[in-house]
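Table S2 (text version). Query chain:
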Amino acid sequence: MHHATPLIGTIVAGLVVAFLMGALAQRLKISPIAGYLLAGVLVGPFTPGFVADGKLANELAEIGVILLMFGVGLHFSLRDLMAVKHIAIPGALVQIATATLLGMGLSWAMGWTPIAGFIFGLALSVASTVVLLRALQVRGLVETERGQIAIGWLIVEDIVMVLALVMLPPLARIATNPEGADLMAIAQPMAATLFKVAGFVVFMLVIGRRVIPHVLHWVVHTGSRELFRLAVLAIALGVAFGAAFVFEVSFALGAFFAGMILGETSLSRRAAEETLPLRDAFAVLFFVSVGMLFNPFVLVEQPLPLLATLGIVVIGKSIAAYAIARLFRKSNRTSLTIACSLAQIGEFSFILASLGTSLGVLPADARDLILAGAILSIFLNPFLFGWVTRMHERFSDDEPASGPPADQGHIIVIGHGRVGRHVAAALKQRPGSLVVIEDNPDKLASAQVEGMTTLRGDAIEPGLLERAGIERATALILAIPEGYEAGAIHQRARTLNPTLTVVARAHSEDEYQHLKQLGVSHIVRAEQETARRMVELLGQG
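Corresponding structure-token output:
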């Protein structure tokens, strides 16, 4: 019996086609994001075949934004946010102003009204939350200084867009009826919105900081992993919805503060692990929903305006962000990362475009250019990050204070967590040099306190193994718990040093077989080693 199931159809079509296109993109050695966007085009209304429900897809994508911002908040303390406010606040404001003026210039050339140009430029000024965070997470940059600046910048942009959404209706009324213009029509809703945002922040810092950790600690003591997972999701989604419903701030901002409050507790790492699978799935649906908005005919009907729009987003915003970061004496690498992170537009741009169209002040052509510019800038963003990564190797101003040893025959340890710190401590007692690579700042600080030579970053990041002196090393110890990631690092290390001895750890038979097929020298399986040691102790007793 047939049932009308638009929700199930949208989820199934989105995930299945996204998987196929993402796998194809991976096979072609390009970012899977490009495949997810193409999947959205294929299930969208502008191509033949099955058409997913666009409204449902957008709501599912919003869940992805909530979970992603919640995950970022788990790793981003209030101290981190305050540490970057001196650059994030002026930087975001100046960059928004620059992109808005450039957009207004293009709108003037197109013959649109000033209010249409203002909305158009504003829509081009704000980066996509999902794209920026996804790019930082994939490269292990969320907890680095450049990642924290980019996230702080994004938070300021979100707050500005919340104010803009409140300000646009009275502005539109003034633009369409100049004789009835009233400054109070703008001042009152803006003041009310600022008051609500401040009220939400105070509520989270005073009430949320006490209630959220207390609830989760109680759940942990029940011993139910299922209930803990449910509690984390309830907090993330509940706070985000409550922030939007009661305080009228964005879902993303509410989820970010919920994660930040929880991040101050000892349960933050476990909460991040529990939400990761859903976070990834709904992030994919976000890209699919963006792809569904893309009308390919725009490429033919308005090629020059589209190129100009894309130039503002990818080039204009990037130059402005880079210049601001350099003005604040940030390194080339940090400035390039910030510029590249912001060289795209996304969900707030769609909301502004829809609002402007519904108010009757934004032409349909402007909306189509915004959507097309978003699609193309999101598509290009992974390639820009790849270019920035290659550029990193040309600059030396970000080298760590404690660099790799200059002598021959040292050992490199990847990871300074539960296993890595014991391995490093044991090796430190032996003759020879040791280098520890770790991307978590707290674990890195622990290694530095113990007097170890360290490098910060993800070992899979191009150039990092070279900086650790992999060509001169005699051994590489992969102490990280992710077996498949360890396999990728092993392949890169063996390419640079074919004679290297590699020791890795595996948690499952699949990981063990995977590492074995890659030719890892020695593989340690925790369960087998534990069982062997227990039998040995039994024999001694």
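Notes on Table S2: The chain has 23 helices and six strands. The longest helix spans residues 183-222.
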